């Protein structure tokens, strides 16, 4: 079975213990049990399971945090931060944004990967609730980070972004979460509002990109080349992206733009592998309506388009999560 087929099984299998625990690392943990109840039929992605286990085995409270230990592709967020009312964009690697027309079998794609070891551990919810987050001074003191260091600047950016209000126009929703449970609940609230998912007659799915099958050569290249082997549409026309942020422990920035979107599972085969080519499956989201985007957004320059033009797409990075919904009787 191809990796894309495995990815799709994750989204449609009925919820059983063996199915939900798609990777044994987190099996039996409170986070895994919560995931099974909140997202029946969606096995926990391997990347998430590994980070949950790391949060149990290697507490960031006793391990030094450095700014280089986790510097995520913050351009996942579309806008990274605000400075005096102006948008400040993260550096965008070549090929990060692409057109929806490229999401087709046979298309060549340029993809940037970061080593899995660079992602922060996911703390158990009861631990995360006791660890400082919103007060920068408390965070720096707890994790023994010097106020004048690069690490402090990195952590401060995350605290600032999470504390900023959502844009006043466009209907965008945002929230930051410090545990897997809070992340799932934030996405659920954005998609279906208050109350339980089942009360609204919908079921949610979650997807994450997997870089575990990336060809060995790709780990040493910033933009390895791939070809699209298979494509499958994922349900829904509204999606919530939850992106891992640079912090001593896992903090997810979740947002929904308020504009229609499409989501895909894209199976990529490496063109530059040493030896037999390997395949990785990536979750992708395409923003269909960019009419309210900043004309200076780097996607427009990269794709030679404009606000309100062709849909703008990007892959979700490893360990980030994409949520969507479908009718319960579908």
From TrEMBL:
Residue ranges constituting the BURP domain according to the UniProt record: 97-326
UniProt cross-references to SMART domains, sorted A to Z: BURP (SM01045)
Coiled-coil annotated spans: none
Keyword Nucleotide-binding: no
UniProt entry keywords in alphabetical sequence: Signal
UniProt-listed InterPro entries: BURP, BURP_dom
Pfam families xrefs: BURP
Residues in the signal sequence: 1-19
Protein name: BURP domain-containing protein
Organism: Sorghum bicolor (Sorghum)
Lineage: Eukaryota, Viridiplantae, Streptophyta, Embryophyta, Tracheophyta
């Amino acid at each position: 079975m191809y990796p894309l087929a495995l990815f799709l099984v994750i989204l449609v299998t009925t919820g059983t213990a063996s199915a939900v625990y798609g990777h044994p690392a987190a099996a039996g943990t409170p986070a895994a049990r919560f995931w099974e109840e909140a997202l029946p039929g969606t096995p926990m992605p391997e990347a998430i399971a590994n980070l949950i286990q790391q949060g149990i085995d290697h507490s960031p409270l006793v391990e030094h945090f450095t700014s280089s230990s986790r510097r995520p592709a913050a351009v996942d967020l579309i806008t990274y931060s605000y400075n005096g009312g102006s948008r400040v964009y993260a550096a965008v690697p070549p090929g990060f944004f692409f057109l929806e027309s490229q999401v087709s079998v046979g298309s060549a794609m340029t993809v940037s990967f970061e080593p899995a070891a660079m992602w922060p551990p996911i703390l158990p919810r009861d631990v995360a609730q006791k660890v400082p987050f919103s007060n920068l001074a408390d965070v720096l003191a707890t994790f023994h980070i010097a106020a004048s260091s690069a690490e402090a600047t990195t952590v401060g950016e995350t605290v600032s972004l999470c504390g900023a209000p959502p844009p006043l126009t466009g209907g965008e929703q945002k929230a930051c979460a410090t545990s897997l449970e809070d992340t799932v609940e934030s996405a659920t609230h954005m998609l279906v509002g208050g109350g339980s998912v089942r009360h609204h007659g919908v079921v949610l799915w979650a997807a994450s990109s997997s870089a575990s099958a990336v060809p060995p050569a790709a780990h040493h290249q910033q933009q390895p080349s791939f070809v699209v082997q298979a494509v499958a549409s994922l349900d829904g026309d509204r999606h919530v992206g939850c992106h891992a942020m640079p912090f001593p422990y896992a903090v997810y920035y979740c947002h929904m733009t308020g504009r229609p979107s499409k989501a895909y599972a894209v199976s990529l085969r490496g063109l530059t592998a040493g030896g037999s080519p390997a395949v990785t499956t990536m979750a992708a989201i395409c923003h269909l309506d960019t009419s309210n985007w900043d004309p200076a957004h780097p996607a427009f320059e990269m794709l030679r388009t404009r606000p309100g033009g062709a849909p703008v797409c990007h892959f979700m990075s490893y360990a980030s999560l994409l949520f969507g919904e479908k009718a319960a009787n579908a």
